[in-house]
Every structure is written in structure tokens, then in C-alpha cells.
Design a protein that fits this description.
Layout: H1 2-11, H2 14-34, E1 48-57, E2 60-61, E3 72-75, E4 80-87, E5 96-107, E6 114-122, E7 125-134, E8 137-145, E9 153-160
Length: 161
């Protein structure tokens, strides 16, 4: 045991190899310090159920009724999903599921937590939007194409269930 101690004392002492030890410690520090830097920049998942919480059309917030707030998106793994639109004509009519639209989405390449979505309304009418994920909030900014809302800019904000 004394031989090992003497070896470490003489061969690895700071006077003999101090430059190599300093370089080794600096490399170890950099590897350990930088190893987790990318963890907060990984793209988040948007799969799951997202409830409509706010809606803006051409820059103006539209006041959503209680029934409107039951509308949601179910986003599946693989870039597809469905949008469930709830609607009522007002009292005494009950709130109910009006229609289900299919949608496609994908993560925008070379970005972090930015997604593109297309909702097909049928008859050549659809919405395209770019979404940003921040925690449990998903904010889409887009435009309607075709149909009676052609060219209408919108912002929709969803929260995760």
C-alpha cells in the first residue's frame, strides 16, 4: 500500500504533471457542465387533448361562450388528429358537438417547440397555422383559406388537459 501512495505522491503530484492535470480537470468540467444544456431545448410533445381557451380574429378577441370552450383538439402520435367543435344557437338549445374536422400537424424542422397545423373543413376550405408550445399552452397563428372566411387571420390559444 505504501508503494501505491509513493507512486501517487511522486508521479501524479501537481509539480510533475500540473499542466496535464489542469487540462484534464478543465475537460472534465466542460463535459459535465455542458452535458445537460440541450435538455430544455428539446422539442416538446403536443400529443394529447387541447382545449380552446381564447380566439382572436383579425386582431380582435372574440368573447367565447361556455359552449365554445368545450371545443378541443385531440392530437395523436404520428401527426394526425381531430378537432371537435361544440356549438349552440343559445338558450334554450343545448350545447352539443357540431362537427369533427380532421387535421394534420408536424414539428417545423430546425426549430424548438414550433409546429405547423392544417385543419381541413371540406369543400376546399381549410386553415393553416403555425403554433408555439410554451408549457401547457399552445398558441396558433394562422389564416383561413377558401370558403366564407377566406383570408381571415386568426390566433387560437389552447391549454392541455
Amino acid at each position: 500500500m505504501r508503494d501505491i501512495y509513493n507512486f501517487l505522491k511522486v508521479k501524479l503530484c501537481y509539480r510533475t504533471y500540473w499542466k496535464q492535470w489542469l487540462a484534464f480537470l478543465a475537460i472534465c468540467f466542460l463535459v459535465l457542465a455542458c452535458s445537460d444544456d440541450d435538455s430544455n431545448e428539446e422539442s416538446g410533445s403536443i400529443e394529447g387533448r387541447w382545449y380552446l381557451t381564447e380566439y382572436y380574429e383579425d386582431g380582435e378577441e372574440l368573447i367565447l361562450e361556455e359552449c365554445d370552450l368545450e371545443s378541443y383538439m385531440d392530437l395523436s402520435d404520428g401527426g394526425t388528429g381531430e378537432y371537435y367543435l361544440y356549438y349552440t344557437d343559445g338558450p334554450p338549445d343545448p350545447c352539443g358537438l357540431d362537427i369533427i374536422y380532421s387535421l394534420d400537424y408536424y414539428s417545423v424542422p430546425n426549430t424548438v417547440n414550433i409546429f405547423s397545423i392544417t385543419i381541413d373543413f371540406g369543400n376546399g376550405s381549410y386553415s393553416i397555422a403555425e403554433g408555439v408550445l410554451e408549457g401547457n399552452t399552445l398558441r396558433f397563428t394562422g389564416v383561413d383559406v377558401g370558403g366564407e372566411n377566406d383570408g381571415v387571420d386568426f390566433i387560437t390559444i389552447y391549454t392541455r388537459d
